[in-house]
Structures are given as C-alpha cells and as structure tokens.
Amino acid sequence: MNYGYFDNAKREYVITDPRTPMPWANYLGSPAYGAIVTQNAGGYSFVKSGAAGRILRYSFNQFDEPGRYVYLRDDENGDYWSASWRPVEKPLDQYKTITRHGTSYTEIESEYAGIKSQVLYYVPMNATHEVWRVRVTNNSDKVRTISAMSYCELTTESNYEQDLVNLQYTQFITNTTFHGDCIVQHINQFCGVNEKGENWRERVFALAGAPVKSYCGRREKFVGVNRFRNPQAVINGDLGNVLNFNGNPCGALHAQLVLQPGETKTIAFLLMQKAPSVAREVIDRYADTEAVVNAELAELDKAVKGANDAFLDMANIVGGLMIVDDAKPVQDIFLKRYDLSASLKKCREEQAEAELAHADAAYQVKTRTEDGKDASSAQRKADAAPAGSRADGDIADIALVQHHLKAGIANHA
Which of 186, 241, 193, 192 is nearest to 218 (CA)? Predict the structure, then answer.
C-alpha cells in the first residue's frame, strides 16, 4: 500500500494516507529543545533529554496519542473535527488531509466541510520553545464561525518514568494557573523559587493572534468520560475555564474565528518550559503572529539550505556527489547524506585503530630501549603503522572516505 512519497525539490516526505502501519514521526528542534511529531499530530516534547526533560506525555504504540491536537468546531451546527486526521478520524471520503515532514518542520494540511486548515509545527532557530502555527481558511460561500481548540497533555514530572508510575506523588506536586493568554503549569511551586516566585520548572502553553475565549488545565475536565476522539469540552464548544490541582495537567486554549467567504486567519500556540516572566517576553514577540512566524521560517529555511550545501560540498571534497538513477528517489535524497556520514564514521574508526597501533608500537620501542633490548622489531612495527596515524593523515582520510563512498554507491546501485 502506498502511504506517500518523497518530494526531492522541497526535501519533504509527503504522507497522503494518514493510516500508516505505525506512527511516522519527524524530529524537530535541537539538543537544547526537541519535539517529535507524527502525521496525526502525536508525539512529545522535551528539554535536553527525552527521558529526564519530558514536557508532553506520549504513549509509544499504534494508537499515537496524546499529542499536539487542534480541534476545529463549527459553532453553528456543532460539528467538529481535528486538524490532523486523528484523533477524531472523520471519514476520508469527506475529510482530505496531507502531511509534509520537512527538515525543520511538519505541516498538516486538511479540509473538511468547506474549511481548510494548515497546522505547521516547528522549533525556531536557537530557541527553546515550539510553535504551532494554525491557519484556517473559509472555502465555503457563507460566513463561518469556527472554534479552534488546542490540547496538549503535560507531564507531572520531567522524568518520564516518575510521571508514569509515581502518580500518587507527582500529581500532588503540580497545579495549573491561567494568565489571560496562557496556562502555566507549576511543579513544586513553592520550592527553590527566586524573588519572583519562579523555579524554572514551569511549563507555559500560550495563544497568540487571538483572544482566549475559554481554557482548561485539567485532562479529566477536557476529555470527560470519552477519549480524545470525542472530548467533552469540544462537544460542549467551551473548555469550561477549569484548572488542575493534584490531577493530570493539560494545556487547552480556545480561540473563536469568524471567517468571511475566502478569508484566512492565523493564530499560533506556543509551548515552552521557562520561568513565567521569561515566557512572557517570548509570547509578546508573537503579537504580529503571521509576520513573526514567516520570519522564523525563513531563518530556518536559510539555515537548512546552508547546512545542506555545506554537507554536499564536503561530499565533493571527499568523493564527489553520488548520482543515483531517477527511478530511486529515496536513495537520491539519502545516499548523499547517509553514505558520507557512514564513510566518515568508518574513517574515524580506522583512524583510531591506526593511532592505537602506532602508540602501542612506540610504547614497545620505548620499553625495549630502556631494557637494553633490541628495538628493531618494534620500530619496524611502528614504521609500518597506517599513514592515517602520522602527518599525512588527512590524505589517508580522504582516500579512506573515497573508498567507502565508492563501495556505498556500488551497494545501492
């Protein structure tokens, strides 16, 4: 079954059928802040460590939940759906969707009942927060009032094991508060705080580009007796303005958009782990949401193209670009990167082995000389050590890489 294809020109993997055998995910961010997102908006976020810095909950199974959900609701008739196929799962003969996993972003574009949505997830350059840019377009011939309701499930502890197995304690140390355009989750709220009452364990989930109509900070109140496919708060059309204390925290914010025929409106949801005073500076930067997001995406695109060009320049230096038959688009994209990376890794391994052999031989020369023994055998061993361990190592490195590159091309031809 065909679930998608590679777009060579845009450097994207495009998923045309969201019903993949397992979740197909993209990795966003940097070592300082990471985000994993699937074609159905599942995934989690973390600061520095996926195990010890987890911000969002996620279950690694075929159910692909929870995630970074954006629900859309027609406030005239009560019909609702999600901007990604899951979790609501509208019939695919009525609901059209496509996901683009790019080098620094994932975008999910969908259309249902005359409403088109484009949700783009990314982590800005040199930043430690993530952005969900949401565009909603009215493709019908009448005015529409659409509610956009976001949802993410916050961990009660940064250590994901403690969050999952020690709920009796971790739920006791967390609560949520609302501050006009954002929900703040506190962990050990009164421990280790500065003069502002902040301990930098706070997580902040904010809305930019529209006022908050309603909010929810507790999972049980958002979901109700249902699951994510039919959350009670979305059914109601109102998030209830409830918060969490000693329960399961979440971030859910509601914006209501009135759209003329053909009109598009843009909002953004922001997620971060920062002291609230620092988070406020970040949130305020997104007042002109569309302009700021476009500038950040342009900066990411420039960085990605620069990195890609530098990588291919290195490939030229060590062995030339690999040309693969047009009938093999997957290889055409990845061989340039994978084979070079593998070759450099192999080169470094052989370099290390050569240096170890040379050091061992030199040590034997020194030992035998000090003992007054014949050093000729050990000296010959040292002289025979691979060139990569001596001054001409750079030439040897290039020769080794060229050798492995050629082998890689042969293997993939």
Answer: 241
Q: What CA–CA distances, in Å, run from 408 to 315, 330, 404? A: 13, 15, 6
For the beta sheet containing 25-30, the strands, ordered from the edge strand earlier in sequence to the opposite edge, are 25-30, 33-38, 45-47
- Please give the sequence-ordered ranges of beta strands (E in DSSP) within 86-225, or none if there are none: 96-101, 105-112, 115-122, 129-138, 144-153, 174-178, 182-187, 203-208, 214-218
> Do the Cβ atoms of 406 and 335 come closer than 8 Å?
no
What's the mean pLDDT when you consider all of the chain?
84
> What DSSP string describes 202-233?
-EEEEEESS---EEEEEHHHHHTTS-TTS-HH
Distance (Å, whole) CA 246 – CA 139? 43
Neighbouring CB atoms inside 10 A of 59's CB total: 13
Q: Are residues 155 and 57 in contact, defined by beta-carbon separation less than 8 angstroms?
A: yes
Comparing C-alpha atoms, which of 18, 6, 114 is closest to residue 67? 18
Instruction: Judge contact between 51 and 159, C-beta under 8 A.
Output: yes
CA atoms within 13 A on the CB side of 349: 8
Q: What 8-state DSSP symbol labels residue 13?
A: E
Q: Which of 23-27, 207-211, 323-327, 340-344 has the lowest mean pLDDT?
A: 323-327
Residue 172's φ and ψ, nearest 5 degrees, are -70, -25
- 286's CB contacts (< 8 A; 6+ apart) are 131, 208, 209, 268, 270, 292, 293
Kindly report, residue by residue over 350-360, the tens digit of the pLDDT. 666 766 666 66
**pLDDT band (50, 70, 90) for residue 229:** very high
Distance CA 127, CA 70 (A): 23
Both tokens assigned to 365: 């020369």
3-state secondary structure of 156: coil
**H/E run at residue 410:** helix 393-412
Residues ≥6 apart with Cβ < 8 Å to 33: 45, 46, 47, 48, 123, 127, 128, 129, 130
Could you tell me the pLDDT band of residue 412, with boundaries at 50, 70 and 90?
very low
Strand ordering across the sheet containing 203-208: 4-7, 12-15, 96-101, 105-112, 115-122, 129-138, 264-273, 203-208, 182-187, 174-178
